[in-house]
Amino acid sequence: MTADMWITLVILIVMMVLFVSEKLRVDLVALCVVLALTLTGIVTAEEAMAGFSSTSVLSIAFLFVVGGAVFQTGLAAAIGDAILKIAGTNQTRLLMIMMLTVSILSAFISSTGVVALMLPAVMSVAQRAKIPASKLGIPLAFSALIGGTTTLIATPPNIIVSEVMQDAGYPPFEFFSYTLPGVLLVIAWLAYMLIIGQRLLPERKPDTVVQRMETPAELFTLYQLPDNMYRLRVPSQSNLIGTSIAASRLGSDFNIAVASLSRMNESRRIGSRSEQTVQYPEADTVFQEDDVLVVQGDIRDITRAAGYWNLAIMANHPIQEGDVITNEVGIAEMVLRPRSSLNGKSLSELQFGSAYHLTVLNLRRPGAHAPLDLKTTPLKFGDVLLVQGRWKDIYALKRLRHDFIVMGEPEAAEMGAFLRLTHAPITLTILVLMIVVLALDLLPLTVASLLAAVAVVLTGCLSMDEAYESIDLKSLILIAGMLPMGTALVKVGLADAAADLLIQTVGELGPLYVLAGLFILTLISTQIISNTASALLVAPIALAAAQGLNVNPQAFMMSVAIAAAMALLSPVASPVNMLVMSPGNYRFSDFARVGAPMMVIAFIISMIVLPVMWPF
């Protein structure tokens, strides 16, 4: 072996140790790999950075945006909920319909996203049907992983192996190239679970009972919000017209919080019928004639503000739940942590509204019976703040774990937070058109996915900010950072050496045995590191093995993609498995007991089907 081969091998081993030990984040490890390969001269700077301009990385980024629209408009939730309702409470029927649904969704949406979406609904159904959650969690996760073998866009490894072939001068896989072996695997998975698998699932109760949190609707009643919230109308003679919320100083001078604003649509201002839209006001929102404000505060302060700004108090229009809780905005409780940076400071000092884009409607302190002044009271550990604002801003507080504990989020999600339900048909149309374009090979994957991503933004299914938020940068950096390792394996000759070793070991027995070796190598690798990293590492070896045997590489490359999806032996093999481990109260051995037989089945199917579809 040459010096470059040894250096690359050492970097590879260190990388895998870091992946397994989880001492560093996987995306940071990938960036360190890029630096190590560049600084040691194994790859050039251009080769090291090529991953960040790779068409596969760009395609995956654009598909994240399309997937974000599927979630944001409630399309995926509507499909999942409808099918779960059809299933009823029969355990076997629920299991089969859930698994089929998840497998279908995973053909078009990331497996992690599908499980994150379906898990609350599945756990809720399990509770209502009195079925142990341990009977549904693993089937949910494994269905998402196996469903990812059915289309080109279903999972990053599928896109990666296709691009590796294209870069080597071979025709890439098409959209439905994966479908036949993938569908056979899904059918085998369903049959396995129906006949054997569900008997291998543990029947285990959760270790702890999760305390139920109040829903936003219950908080609305609990805090008696209708008692201190009022409507104010901005008449034509009001001097508030043309003034922004910040300039009006309603909060600082009058102790009034503006919770929402109803405004007549411009297109409806002329005519006999008016139509109003409710929006969450920003500091720079400028008041217009006939605006209706929902405000919170003491009636004396509200009366004083109404007199000053010449506003009409709409006493005959009591505040309803829908005035402050919608799909876009809502309310939630948040508790200050012991070492929160907010402790000892008042909301005025913190400029809480400007900093977090939220309005504090109430402040409660354990043991304190007298009302607390929202503006001047220094905050303390254990204080409970009732905040109101956009759901996305409420959820953003989750990232500030040092400062806050945000309560009641599952209930907020159940009521459709973030969703633009009216745009679900638009998203469905764009998704179907993208699939048709890819299936007919009218445009390359990168162009088709970019077109779909732009379309969901232009049609309002996602805002541009939400499109950026839907992109999983961690995954993209991992893929972009790992691509240079694949380049290095080929460049220094390690891929050829591994392929030669495989050929020397089993090559004389025929290409089928090499195919089996590649499948097993990928299978072992994907239990240790991510399926994406496994595909990136083994795909060059598979290509070199095919070239060494002078056979077509399609079957070898497809075996890598399928084996990369079989992360079924442990919870750490995939984020999907980690998502269901706690709700199902699983042990490590539970995954292997259910997953190992399915891996054997997938191996057998692949060894039979792949050589028939792509003869050597």
Share in helix: 55-70%
Report the end-to-end length measured between terminal Cα atoms. 30 Å
Strands, count: 9
Tell me the strand percentage band.
5-15%
Query: Which class do the helix and strand fractions yield?
Result: alpha+beta
Q: What low-confidence regions span 5 or more consecutive residues with pLDDT below 50?
A: 208-212, 267-274, 410-415
Helical element count? 28
Compact summary:
By secondary structure, the chain is α+β, with helices and mostly antiparallel strands.
What does the secondary structure layout of this molecule look like, with pairings?
Layout: H1 3-21, H2 26-39, H3 45-49, H4 55-72, H5 75-87, H6 91-105, H7 111-129, H8 137-147, H9 156-167, H10 179-200, H11 216-222, E1 229-233, H12 245-248, H13 250-254, E2 257-264, E3 276-279, E4 292-296, H14 299-309, E5 312-313, E6 329-336, H15 347-350, H16 352-356, E7 359-364, E8 384-390, H17 391-396, E9 404-406, H18 409-414, H19 424-439, H20 445-458, H21 464-470, H22 473-491, H23 494-506, H24 511-528, H25 531-549, H26 554-564, H27 575-581, H28 588-613
Antiparallel strand pairs: 1-4, 1-5, 2-3, 2-4, 6-8, 6-9, 7-8
Helix pairs in contact: 1-2, 2-22, 4-9, 4-20, 4-21, 5-6, 5-7, 6-7, 6-8, 6-10, 7-8, 7-27, 8-10, 8-27, 9-25, 9-26, 10-28, 19-20, 22-25, 23-25, 24-25, 24-26, 24-28, 25-26, 26-28
